[in-house]
Amino acid sequence: MLFLLLFAIGAVLGAVAAAIGQVDRRPVFFGYVKIAILGALFGGYVLADAIGHEPAHPGDLDLVVLLAAIFGAIAVLVLLWAVANSLRRGTPR
Hints:
3 helices, single chain
């Protein structure tokens, strides 16, 4: 459960990166922004689903954890990239 929570939080941080991308208005960034938003939505869904009930098949939770980990990791990387890019230009937001 803690594992799911951590990656859901990471996905939400990815949504913060999406907000930075909206301010930045860079076309290249928007592909990553979509991934971050999907990660945030999926992370929230995974967390709510895991808290709500046990899966019908034991293997389902393993797949969900794997997908949450992938989306969460991508979202965190997007956030770090956005912050590093802003700091490199000397305009931290």
